[in-house]
Amino acid sequence: xxxxxxxxxxxxxxxxxxxxxxxxxxxxxxxxxxxxxxxxxxxxxxxxxxxxxxxxxxxxxxxxxxxxxxxxxxxxxxxxxxxxxxxxxxxxxxxxxxxxxxxxxxxxxxxxxxxxxxxxxxxxxxxxxxxxxxxxxxxxxxxxxxxxxxxxxxxxxxxxxxxxxxxxxxxxxxxxxxxxxxxxxxxxxxxxxxxxxxxxxxxxxxxxxxxxxxxxxxxxxxxxxxxxxxxxxxxxxxxxxxxxxxxxxxxxxxxxxxxxxxxxxxxxxxxxxxxxxxxxxxxxxxxxxxxxxxxxxxxxxxxxxxxxxxxxxxxxxxxxxxxxxxxxxxxxxxxxxxxxxxxxxxxxxxxxxxxxxxxxxxxxxxxxxxxxxxxxxxxxxxxxxxxxxxxxxxxxxxxxxxxxxxxxxxxxxxxxxxxxxxxxxxxxxxxxxxxxxxxxxxxxxxxxxxxxxxxxxxxxxxxxxxxxxxxxxxxxxxxxxxxxxxxxxxxxxxxxxxxxxxxxxxxxxxxxxxxxxxxxxxxxxxxxxxxxxxxxxxxxxxxxxxxxxxxxxxxxxxxxxxxxxxxxxxxxxxx
Amino acid sequence: xxxxxxxxxxxxxxxxxxxxxxxxxxxxxxxxxxxxxxxxxxxxxxxxxxxxxxxxxxxxxxxxxxxxxxxxxxxxxxxxxxxxxxxxxxxxxxxxxxxxxxxxxxxxxxxxxxxxxxxxxxxxxxxxxxxxxxxxxxxxxxxxxxxxxxxxxxxxxxxxxxxxxxxxxxxxxxxxxxxxxxxxxxxxxxxxxxxxxxxxxxxxxxxxxxxxxxxxxxxxxxxxxxxxxxxxxxxxxxxxxxxxxxxxxxxxxxxxxxxxxxxxxxxxxxxxxxxxxxxxxxxxxxxxxxxxxx
Lengths: 575, 294
What we know:
In chain A, 26% of the residues lie in helices and 30% in strands. Chain A is α/β, with parallel strands linked by helices. Chain A has 4 domains: 2-27 and 37-75 and 552-573, no CATH class; 91-220 and 519-549, von Willebrand factor, type A domain (Rossmann fold, 3-Layer(aba) Sandwich); 224-309, Immunoglobulin-like (Sandwich), CATH 2.60.40; 312-477, Rossmann fold (3-Layer(aba) Sandwich), CATH 3.40.50. Chain A has a 7-stranded mixed sheet with strand order 20-21-28-27-26-23-24, with helices on one face. Chain A has a 6-stranded mixed sheet with strand order 8-7-4-9-10-32, with helices on both faces. In chain A, strand 7 and strand 8 (142-144) form a beta hairpin. In chain A, helix 2 runs antiparallel to helix 11 (553-573), helix 3 (112-125) runs antiparallel to helix 4 and helix 6 (324-335) crosses helix 8 (466-477). In chain B, a hairpin with a 6-residue loop joins strand 8 (233-236) and strand 9. Chain B is built from 10 helices and 10 strands. Chain B has helices spanning 12-16, 21-36, 65-71, 108-125, 151-161, 170-180, 197-209, 222-225, 248-272, 286-293, and strands spanning 46-53, 75-81, 86-92, 129-135, 139-146, 186-191, 213-220, 233-236, 243-246, 276-281. The A-B interface holds A 29-44, 46-47, 51, 54, 574-575 and B 96, 99, 192, 194, 220, 224, 227, 229-230, 232-240, 242-246, 249-255, 257-259, 262. Strand 2 (31-33) of chain A pairs parallel with strand 8 (233-236) of chain B.
């Protein structure tokens, strides 16, 4: 039992009033002569026990009346198992409505999201003015608001293209409600509880926070979706993801380029298919891999973007001081028809005249640094090699394949004096860093590397990623091209441009994990989220501290009235 | 309606305002006798003499039912006094008798004095020797039983000369009375009986054993029969230092039952020993009280 106005319980001290009055009443009574005192004494002796009991009973009844009235004023809330319990103790509640892409699944002709929204709406609608509410959708943002406002948000919520990490969402929501100084704190997880929606680690729910999770359907619905799509040379590799179902047959995947079907393949969930691309001219191409429609439509299509370009023409490194490792890598690339001999791009310790792009690496000896810097300045370069920097790992989003590889020696790359200050200029782009300092920088038609591509300087030449790095260096970075970036979101493509040139693209699509609709087991949910997994009826009954609360003040007042009548009866019956 | 105006049927307190004991007693007796037309007292002092024909107005209790059954004629039995009755009226003058429950009522003592005076007047008028003894802890006044002229005045003076007593040790006074009542006769005890019942009964039984006809008039103020008063009060016994704090409203029912039980105990005990017992409240008209003795 809890109280809406616990301060009123201070009035319980008034329960001492009957006893105090009884004591205060003990004044000296008036005296009178009464001859038949022997009769009086006899009568008193006979009724002494009865009178004591009566006085005690009256004291108890009067005290009980006061106690009940004070308790009624404090508005006690009694737990009730009936779902119609209209009141509950003030609660900090965060409702996590998982409207991620998987909630668009249609089951029995009805989207899963509709069921989830109904449950979430029920939780919010039962909230009282004394509650503190948040609503978390698939975007992970906790929205505070009134019950009406949040119900309206739930009503307007549609299937999102984003994946919700339930572990992170519960962790954040639990901390949010735990910070509220309210008697009850709850997190309602209204989700299809995909196993893949559970992120790494555990939610770490603070003590005192109840987490209730709506149980998913017991049977995992079959589903297939297009996973990752990669363009390699003249073929597209399409991965199929989805719910592992025993005996599930292969799915038909179609590859379309600019709306035209260019290939088909049958592929089972969990495997990949390679579809040969037709000869394509140079330029940026947009295609899509499409599966036959199933109950979850959002993952049946995925866009892909790639660029078709002729091999870079690279000057022989032996003539420019690029070193043996660069020469070997270029030989491999030439054999693979990724580069051709030419004078379009040069790799060496100074900019080469007559080339479109110079990839400049530091000279082998420190004494030659000044000469290299002068050559850079003569070429219009606004960057220079400075003092030697500290060793460290390579970092850079543009080159994920080489991230983490160790650099033993390097020169700092700094702007030349009067060239715009200590930082990089706006048209300079840092492609990789070591210890937070620029290590690979593009500046106009010059790319500067802080280390020589030699194992004495860096572990990069000995790494498997070296050849792809050189490939990216000459075919993509030297041309100022950014990598195609994949982001989570509604299927779409956004090209990045510099001036009139298209230098990259951002492809948005669903997180492939959304396609696996296998629900997490209750034990796993309890372990990771600290949540009790309940079916819909149990969920409704358990929310808000496990039961509805009813205001018991009316009942208490009724009992107080009955006791007052009983007191009146006892007091008058013996008079 | 005429009876309502009779002085013996008026409220005792109102009657008392008419004058002294003599006037009141005479008025009461006049009214009383005009109501019953003849002496109410009979006993071994009257003997059957003859029959006479029934006349309207005769009391039906004197009808000879045997003659009526045999001859179908109405005859009444007639009696004549064989000897004069020796009556001794014992009046309790203890402190408790000086109490009244309300200002507009007579004290038990005042009521007892007037009742005794009226009773004595009746007895004397029918030529019975009547005496008086007043007592509290001790015997205070003794007026020997006589029938000569002026006896009633002496009795009244004896009543008036007896002050209110201090306590009640009735049994010792009663024991002494037994020695004063050598010749058997009628003994009328007027008292509130607020003393040990068994000890008092011992003395009364002794009188009864000696051949006396004993009548006990138990006086009680109405306020003694039904408890009332302030919410809480300390009641003190006027004859002792005893006191008790009570809430009259709480005890009223039990007290009333206790009094009723006490009266019943006196009545039962007296009946068992051949003693006439009458419970009289001090708001009862004197005529009604005298009628109880008839």
